[in-house]
Amino acid sequence: MSLPALRFSGISRETFVSLTVVGCVLLFALPIVLAMWPSPQPAALPNGTTMDYSRAELSDVELSDCAAEWIDADSFCGEATAHLADGGTQTIGITREGWAAGLEDGDRVVIQTATPVQGEVLHSFHSVERGTSLAIFAALTVVLVVLSVGGKGLRAFVSLLVSALFIWLFLVTGVHAGGNPLVYSSVTAVLVLTIVLHFTHGFGAKTMAAWAGTVVGVGTAMLTGWIFSSVARLTGITETTSASVFVTGDIDIEVLALAALLIALIGILNDITVAQASVVFSLLGHRDEGGHDHGHGHGHGHEHGHEHASGSAPPDAGTATGGEPVTRRSLRRRQPSLMKRALSVGQDHAASAIYTVSFSVVGASLAAFVAAKSYGMPVWALMQSETVAHTIVQLLAGIVGLTVTMPATTLFAIWLAAWLRRTPQGADVT
User: Element (H or E) spanning 2, and its range?
Assistant: First the structure.
């Protein structure tokens, strides 16, 4: 019996190629990351004010003035005594947020200390201390993920944590230090996407197809977002970025908005590509990498692991119609129907993703819509405002990326299946 795939030190052909691709990406990206790694800089506002944060326990909480109907969200309407961890005490101001959180004596909070170049040091309430609660919630979520999704779910959760840490240390810190947001986001997207996809889903043709499809989709969405933003003359200055303009006036907010779109699309498009790659390989009769069946057989596992009760192999498990081995030629003949079936499933997934993204955007902007209604703003004016128009452009760019991602992933998956998971013509598969 001849081997249906080349072996490299006991590693299958597709795993070897997948490892090679990842190695090349890391070999290219890591030196860039090291060269761009931002140096730690003291955080300070343009006026020289420095900010410090510390934990404290409250006493003598007074919030009676916070119940007024109209109070500026940033104005103090209450005060309390904060007992710091080092034994000191400070009188702190409390905004309406603290009143809404129901602050009481004995609550543990995070306080913010603003130290200006000249003037009085200001201590204020920042947030309720939620570290322990969040850690417990995360632990419960991890347990549920492991029980429901298994090892892949746990690896996905680990990938999420590592990616978030890298984004904070590299992307956020680099942009804050004056780096180009789009350059930092592009490097982050490529590196995070490569590592997360392969760490979570393993090394193989299916993962490579999902990776390539996501790269194409994100690139298309980025180009679309840039064109739409330029034509619509969007500045990128919205309610959420106005604070960034004040704090870091030297950052191009329009570029920062495009960079944010890139990062946001990674997860959305990755969901489409992984699912679509799985659809293609399932239609070809390939099991997941862990199932030891990729349509080309592995020794005795092929002889015994894919037999029906009657002893015959299923028609799609590594064979074309009529029992023909899966080769480039047989796949080429099957591609029209395979593409049609794969795209049919992918269209359902892409369509659901479109309105899922749309509802998510609307939900995130619901407070802004209610505020606009309070000001008596008509719909036509609301839609042309910087904030809403910016959101619409990001949404449309994401939809364009989705429409390109699904067929691109399908093509990549079919091509990789023919190239890496084929059964050589004339091989003995019985």
Answer: none
Cα 10 from chain centre: 34
Which DSSP helix (H) or strand (E) runs through 98? Answer: helix 96-100
Which of 5-19, 30-44, 371-385 is predicted most confidently?
30-44
- Return the structure tokens found at 368: 């802004």
Look at residue 241 and give its three-state secondary structure: coil
pLDDT in tens, 330-378: 555 555 577 777 777 777 777 777 777 777 666 766 777 777 776 777 7
State the residue for tokens 């404290």: 56
DSSP 106: T
Q: Report residue 325's pLDDT band, with 50, 70 and 90 as the boundaries.
A: low
| pLDDT tens column, 48-75 | 677 888 888 888 888 877 776 666 666 7
Which pTM value belongs to this model? Answer: 0.69
- Strand ranges for 158-261 from DSSP E: none
CA gap 196, 167 in Å, rounded: 13
3-state secondary structure of 173: helix
How far apart are alpha carbons 293 and 299 in whole angstroms?
10
Cα distances (angstroms) measured from residue 338 to each of 105, 279, 341, 411, 417: 66, 10, 5, 10, 12
pLDDT > 90: what percent of the chain?
A: 3
CA-nearest of 152, 418, 412 to 286 is: 418
**pLDDT on residue 239:** 58
What is the rounded CA–CA span in Å between residue 353 and residue 390? 20
Backbone φ, ψ for residue 348 (5° rounding): -65, -45
Query: Which amino acid type is present at position 5?
Result: A
Cβ–Cβ under 8 Å, residues 193 and 214: yes
Alpha-carbon distance of 406 to 278, in angstroms, equals: 12
Q: What are phi and psi of 122, to 5 degrees?
A: -115, 125
